[in-house]
Structure formats: structure tokens, C-alpha cells
Amino acid sequence: MYKGGYTGKILRINLTDQTSKKEDLSLETAKDFIGGAGFGIKYLYDEVKADIDPFDSDNKLIFAPGPFSGTSVPCASRMSVTGKSPLTGTVGMALSGGHFPVEMKFAGYDALIVEGKAEEPTYVWIKNGDVKFRSAKKAWGLKTTDAQQVIKNELKDQNIRMVCIGPAGENLSKVACIINEMRAAGRKGLGAVMGAKNLKAVAVRGTGKIAIADKEKFKVAKGVFTKAMKDSPGLYKKFAHVGTGLGALSMSSKGIYPAKNFTATGEFTPMEEFGVDVQKERTIGREYCYGCPVGCSQLKMAKTGVYAGTMTEGPEYETTFSLGGQTGVSNYDAVIAADRLCDELGLDTVSAGVAIGFGMELFEKGIISKEDTGGIDLKFGNDEAMMILLRQMAYREGFGDILTDGVKVAAEKIGKGSEDYAIHVKGLELPGYDVRGSKAQGLNYATSYTGADHNRGYAIQEIKAMEVPIGDVDRLSIERKGELTVWNQDVRAATCDSPTMCAFLLDIVMAPTATQNTADLMEGVTGLTYTPEEVQQVGERINNLAKAFNMKAGFTRADDTLPKRLMTEPIKAGVAKGQKVSQEDLDYMLNEYYRIRGWDEKTGTPTREKLTELGLEYVADDLGLK
Amino acid sequence: MYKGGYTGKILRINLTDQTSKKEDLSLETAKDFIGGAGFGIKYLYDEVKADIDPFDSDNKLIFAPGPFSGTSVPCASRMSVTGKSPLTGTVGMALSGGHFPVEMKFAGYDALIVEGKAEEPTYVWIKNGDVKFRSAKKAWGLKTTDAQQVIKNELKDQNIRMVCIGPAGENLSKVACIINEMRAAGRKGLGAVMGAKNLKAVAVRGTGKIAIADKEKFKVAKGVFTKAMKDSPGLYKKFAHVGTGLGALSMSSKGIYPAKNFTATGEFTPMEEFGVDVQKERTIGREYCYGCPVGCSQLKMAKTGVYAGTMTEGPEYETTFSLGGQTGVSNYDAVIAADRLCDELGLDTVSAGVAIGFGMELFEKGIISKEDTGGIDLKFGNDEAMMILLRQMAYREGFGDILTDGVKVAAEKIGKGSEDYAIHVKGLELPGYDVRGSKAQGLNYATSYTGADHNRGYAIQEIKAMEVPIGDVDRLSIERKGELTVWNQDVRAATCDSPTMCAFLLDIVMAPTATQNTADLMEGVTGLTYTPEEVQQVGERINNLAKAFNMKAGFTRADDTLPKRLMTEPIKAGVAKGQKVSQEDLDYMLNEYYRIRGWDEKTGTPTREKLTELGLEYVADDLGLK
Questions:
Q1: How do residues A312-327 score in pLDDT, each as one tens digit?
Q2: CB atoms within 10 A of CB B463
């Protein structure tokens, strides 16, 4: 049902011929995909050939906040960035918070679709309905903070919000991210897609307001939402004051904090170095996304040695893992400085850190030597080596040039059996969960439409013991993990990635009622009505459509797998000691997953019946399904 | 005469008891001292005991834009910062451009007088008439770019302008500067005075307008001024496109580009490294002070090696000298990166570079060894050593802790004859002119009220061959240098440092008519009328009053001197080969200088008669003059 009041707009930006066009968003797309990642995947599937080279000018980048962004619903200043990923070759979708997402909405747009390729370094300057293409020669080469400041100065407006890339994106590092202020749409190398398009930045200023279709309904739905936040024992009282930074401790206590390229899980547990006191001492304040009353982003400053005085927003847990545990660097100040350096260079901290840890293991195993590293003593724990390599990765110099395409490609180039140590799924480096001790998270990595992405189906039941309609689970068991993972993936897509809402609210507060909340808020904001089941079905639709894109890109059931190490070597120490995910375990979980998805169990792919049920019959035709 | 219409206001800020008070500016002070440096020195003399420890809470910092700041006269967004200098013990006065000066005016103030000392790290937040004292614990320790951003975010206003200090000022480095955006009130260690007061920043937002007393007069005077700028063959066509950056070439061609602690003047002329092509390649754009149509500030980005991607505003000529020639570092990208590092740490580039060059000479001479430097190979030309030492200077670590008090104190600490290599006047390190080949500039260094400050009486006739009412001069001769220097010092104080106007306009365009222009503009803006001679007399008054402060601080004729090297060792190569300033030369010039000043030639100090003539009889009383 549709009560009226929705006026979605898309801004299509063509860099090749430097034109732009404002289009109406179809009500059908709005209803079926909600916004954010939903829109991104819908437009990507419909408009980009799946077998394209991600650096081809025909690849697109879709920046999409959700219908909740810019309204007074808290924690909704999020957006998705979607394109074909140069790192994985799958759908590339990454999310970011901050202020840019709502600024896009205030400028009047539910999505920007960036097409083509500029001849020379360019940035796009959008002021409400006015779109200009400007030379970015001045800013090309600059690190992200300077680039943003230089563009603000050039446009004589300090209130501009923007997304931009650093040297890593310009140099087509496949682990390059997209930065807005000090936040990242981090993973899957989408910064390099901007780089390939010669697009340094998109600067936006918007002064409009967001229409609310049903003010009364909205008010009530928002009230339920904010009350749930207030009533949460964990949100304001705990999470707000520490953010994700203490994850190293809780993951260690679960035995799944991965270290030294997943060789030392349960052994290297930097409790003292990354612990409460150390982090507290470094915390100088908090930063808030637009409209967020929580402010989980901890602003930290390094205190010691050559890193003293270096500030960063974070490091978030994943970074504490990737630039800390994974590299064996226990100097928290080095992790702070490396986090900032990644932001400045425009490198994804997770993939960059995992790649360096991979290099360290090869070095320690003697598979590569100082001859390969250009003299760098690439041992685990060498923070100086890490800093040098991060710079090299952004500039494609020395050994960094090998690592900067991610561990999958690096292993192919290095050879000598190094593939066995490349910790990735579909080319995407693993985040900070040793899934040998969290089976649903493992199944999620294997099946997520963007490779080993913890956020696309985060196993909150296993990792945070979150109460959800699924009931109790044993994280070490392989039972019911298909059911769990489908629920996580669909609910995440429909209630976080698309509306768009901060995932931490799902993880901490809203999971049991997320689909109901989303239905109510959608009706209030857009006038589009949903049952909770319909909301969940939006998530299912998104996951099916993304899967179809990946199928067309050549991915098969064989790609729904995990790194060899996690399937053959058990965890050596800690409370998850002895755990692994054998091929049999994985197959068992995959079979259940495909079954619950209503897919063909043998091929692990959607059926015509399922696609038709989701309103995606045209996709079944594309795929030539019977 | 006074035609009415002037409404000057002073904001007095007391950090000790966290109070502020808005006061009327006396018309007499306005008339006698114009503004800017004039006000700074007037308030400093009247309110601060000259023999005080500069870090005592009774020292004050006076931030003063001039009457022209914030009007539509171009190039007037300047301000002086005045206090007793911790580096020299004399009057400390440094100027800065940018946007902060006019923001102060728009907020309603002709000067801020900062008094006392906060108990804990504090910043002051001034929004028009509203003054707040806020905790700076969050920002304390941060580098200047981050500090400014964090405070803007905290105050939720990206349009705030501010002055702040970096780690160097916090750690009481005597060569610490005050930064606004990427501009510095660089010299004399005034950043450390902020540090001693626990004052991290002063943030300002102003929305008022500047009253113009006589609009018609103002329009005409401004017209003359802007026409002269337009007609200048050098300003828009040349200077705007290169800024001061090519000074290394022109000073080299005059044989006065100092190098390697003034041992290699005329030898080390990094024409290729710092030349036109290299600079052009690095120039990514220009930055403009508020209301400036010239934009001489060249935004540059390093291109090579580990420095690639580092941006800076500059390096200005003085920095190209101090972090280049003086240290023997010919890698221009290293100079760019060191310039930025100084800005971030809040170090004066000139003093910092000269101090490092001093250390390098001691190291090469064997006066100090690796034992003293903590293992650093402190040879001329070692850019890596320079970068390490800059950081150490800001944090008072290792050998940097010695250098960070300036070469005078460092030489006292090191002993072993190192005093002979300490290139300073009254503790202030020499800027980039080897005054053995520019005698009036030498006399200016010896007599300036703030030590070796090129800007307080820049010998434009010698260095830029600027046509002035003084007539032709021979820069190698010691004749008429007293006359020249008095003219330069008084005109600079009255027409640049006080109104406040950009000195480059004096140097390039206005010198012959500067006093007339200033008189006309003063009448237009303030309603206060002057003859050109009265304007010049304001300069004389300022220089006399500052001298009186220094006398009370214990300085005598013996302090009006030059570094031993310049008085004993002739320049070894280049077109100024063989030149030096012997004690006899200096005495000859000093005698003429004092005579022309109407001072006592023997003591080099003002007479009661002169002070009375300048309306400073109370100063004669203070000094106990007969």
C-alpha cells in the first residue's frame, strides 16, 4: 500500500561528458529496495555489466543514503557506496557515516549515480540543484584531510561536506577506500574506482529539508525507537563511552581475536597494550555523526614516542585487529598513528593490515626475504615496517606495490605456496573474527555478496549474545547456522544498510524488533507501508539480486568458501582451542543456508521460483534459469 | 584633528579568574599608535614590567589587527601579536595574515589583551560580545591542524577562525610560534607564552561590520591605493604567481643567500633544487588572506620520495633559507615537508632551521658528537636528521631539547666555544639575508627592537632596489645606513605593522607614498587626520617606546650588535665575496643611526627631549632620564 508523500530523486552524474541529470526515483524501486545499499545493488545490477573490468569507465559508483537519513530519526546519517569491486570482482558495497550522507539528502538526492570517466582529475561540486565539474588538479596527490580543506577553501565554503580519495585511490590500490572527513567507506577498494574515474572528490552543500509523508505515524515510530535506545542498558552507558575499541578484549575472551595472520589466535591477546586504561588515557573526546546522540566514535591521540600527538577517529575494533593483532604490533600508539595514516592515504585499514600481516608471515617463514621487501625487516611486531609499507601501498612502491592489490593477487604474484597464507574470501581480507570459533560468522563470510565482510550478516547471536527471534545458539556448533546467517544477512540489509541506520543500533538495541521498527518508520517517512515480513523480504531481495550479479560475474558455489588455514589448522590456544571449519562443516552449513534461501543446494544459486517470488523474474530471465 | 566616527574597542581576557571586559580604546592611543603593533607595544610598555620572566603569568599577549583590517582596503587582514619574548627578553612582536585578524574585527575588537594564566589547558571562545573559557584538555597535545578542527567540531561551527599553538608551544619551546590555519605569527617564541598561560587557542566568530568614519575620503584613498596596485609592474604579474619562494635565486644572485650556518654564503646556491621549474612543478594553487586580490601564498605539494603528497602553504623564502640553505638540505620536497611539520608542531621555521644548522656545524666541527645527538648523524644536508630534530624540538626530547631554546641559550649550554657559531642578535636567529652583503639590513638587525628581525626595517632599497624618498644606495657601503634604517623602521611600523597592511605592498608598490596613503586611509576609516610626517612619527614613537621597554629589560648599546662570524669572517664566495661588517663598520653605522634617531650616541638610547617630542614624557620619567 502507498499512502502518498514520497518524492525520491536520483542525480545521475556523467564524468565523460560532464553532464548531470535529475531523475525521479520510481516508487517501485523505493518500495522494493528501501534505499541505501538496496538502491545501490538495484542500480548496479540493472546498469552495469557484471563481467566488466571494475576500472572500466562503464563501472558505476552509486552513493545512496537511505530514506531515514536527514530526518530526525537518530543514527541515520549513513550511506552506501556501491560499484563493482576491483578487489573482489563481486558487488562492492561499503557504508559510511558522518555528515556527507545527510548533506546529500539536504541537497535533494536519494542517490548519486556516478558514471563514465573524466579526462583529467576532477571533482564534482553539488550545491542543491546546481552541479559543476571542476578541475581537481590542485587536489590530486593530496592526502585526504588536506584535499578536503583545499577544496573547501577553493569553493569558499567551510560547511561543505565531501567524499574524496587519497593517493591510494589515485594510484588504483585495490584496497583504497573513500573518505569523508575522517570516516571511511572502507572496504572492497571502491576508492580505486573513484581513482579510475579521475574523480578526486564529490563536494556537497544542501539547504533543503526532508519531507515526512505521515507526521503522526513518524512521531510515534520515532518515539518507540528513541525509547528503546534510552532503555538499553548497553548503549548510552557503556557503548557510547568506549565505542568498538575494546573489542580486542572481548574477542580475546571468546578466543576469536585473530593474530599474526591467524596463526596466533588465542595466544597474542594484547590485553595490557590495547586495554581499558591505555585506551582511556588516549581518548580525548568523541565525534558524532549527524543527528547521533550516542557518539561512539572515540577521538584518540597517541601519547608516546614518534607517534605522540597523532590524532585519529578510532581506532575502531577492526583496525585494532588489523593494524595491531594481525601484524603483531602491540604498541597502541603505533596503531593510532597507522589508523590515521591509512585515513590520510585513503587505505582500508582492514585489508591493508591483513595484507601486511600476510607479508610478515611470508617473511618469517622465509618465503620472501629482504631482497623482496627492499631491505625492510618485515617481522611480526615491527611497527616501523608497518608504517613504511602503508605508505608504499598507497604509492605503489617497493613491496607495497605487491600487497596493495590485496592478499589474493599478492599471493598469485609471489607464488611459492604463499596462497596457503592468504586470508581472504573472494579476495576480501578477513576482518577481526577468527571464524573457527564463530561458525555463523564463518558461514556469513563464505556467502556474503561482497566476500569476507563481517557487516553484511554479522553473527550478533554468536559474538554479542544478542537476543533475536532465532533463539539461543552455540557458536562452536555448525547446527542452524544457515538459518541464523540468512536472518542476519536479510535483516541487516533491510533494516540497516538500506534505510540507512547505524548497524550498532541493530547489534545493541533493536535486533528483536528491527523489522517492525523499520516498517513503522518507512510508513512515517515515505508513506510506503510494509509488514515486518515484507521488510525482511526486502533484505532477501537485495541478497538475491546481489548474488545474481556475482553469478553473472562468474562466481560459483566453489567460491563460497573460507581460507585454507581456517579449514585445516585448528586454533592453537585459548577458549576456542581446537576449533576449525572443515570442508565437511562448511558444506553442511552451506547446504542448510542454500536450502533456507530457497536456492538450488547443488549450485548454491537462486531458483526462478525464488526470484519470481521476490519480484525479480527479469533476473531469472537474465540468468537463463528454467 | 579628529573628525569623529571612531569607536575602538579592546577585549581584556583574564585567564586566571576567567573573566573578560570590553573597554573603550582611548582616542589618544588610536591617534598616537594607529593599531596593530603600535597598540601592542603601547599596552605592553604600559602594563607589563619589562624585567619580568616571559613565562610569568603577568606577561601579556596582545592580539591586534589594525584599523584597516576588515574594511574593503585590500591586503589588510593582518594582526600583530605582542608580548615579552621568551627567546630574546625584548619586546616580542610578530605579525600574521590569514582570516583570523578580520574575524576579530567583525567580532568587534581592535585588540585582545590576554592576561594571567589558566589553571588547566583552556581555549577562549569569542562570539561577538560573548566570551567563554572552555577546557582545552581535548585539544592539548594536538598538532595545529587537528587542534583547529577538533575545536571547530566541538563548537559545531566550521566558520570559526582561530589562533592556536602546537606541541612546541605547550612544551615551552622558545622558538614556538602561533598558528592560524596554516599561517604563523612566527618569531620570538610567542607560542610558548600561550603555552605558559595554558592557552591552547583563541577561537573567534564575528558577524559585525567595520564602521567607516568618512566614506567619501575612504573611497578616494582606497581608489589611489588599488590603482597603484593595479599599475605596479611587479605585483599581479610577477609576485602573485611566485610569492617569496624564488628568493633563494635572487638572494643568491646578490651573493647574500646564507648557507650552512653562514659558512657557505655564495657557495651553496641551490639554483636547480629550489629554482623556478622545481617550484612550479610543486605549486598546486594559491591561498588568499581575507580581502586580498593578490594571493601570494603558494600552495605546494612535495612530489618525491617519502615526502610525496605533503602539502604546505609556502615554503616562503625565509623557510627555503632556514630549512634549506642553512641546513644544507637541497631536497626541495624535504623543505616542503619540514615547513609543514613546523606548522603542525607550532615551530618557527626560521629559528628552528637556523638552530639545526647551528647544530650541524658543531657536529661537523667535532664540537659535539653522536653521543650528544643521541646517534643522529647531524651533517649538513641530512634531511632525515632535520625532520627528527624538528620533532624533538617540539617535544623537548634528545638534542632537540637543547636547540629548542634557540642558538644563544643552546650555545651557553653546550659551551666549548660554540658561542662563536651561534648566529643571532639578542637571541633571535638571523633570517635569510647575509647582512655582510647588505649593510642596512645588518644595521636593522642590530637595532630592531626584537633582535634580528628582517621585517621590522627591511632594507628594501638594498635588497629589492625599491625606489624610496631616500634616494640611491650602495648596499655594500656603510654610508647613510643610519638614515636608511631609521626610515625603514619607522615607515614599516607606521604604514604596515600598525594599520595593519601587508608588508609586501610596501616592498613592491607603495614605499614612495606609504605615509601619504596611510594618512588618507586613516582619515577615511577612523576620522583621525594625519600629515604624512605625522604618520612617520607614529613609527618613530613605536620604535622609541619599544626601545624604552628593552632598556628597562636591561639591554644596552652593547647588545646592538651582530654575530661574531659576520663581523670577523668575510663572505668566501659569490658577488659579495670579501664582505663583512667589522666592529668599526658597525659602530660607524650605529653612531649615525642613533644620531638620526635623536638618541644619545654613546649609550644608544632615547633622550628626554626626543621622548617628549613624541609625547612620551612619562617614559622619560620611567627611565629616569634627565
A1: 999 999 999 999 999 9
A2: 21
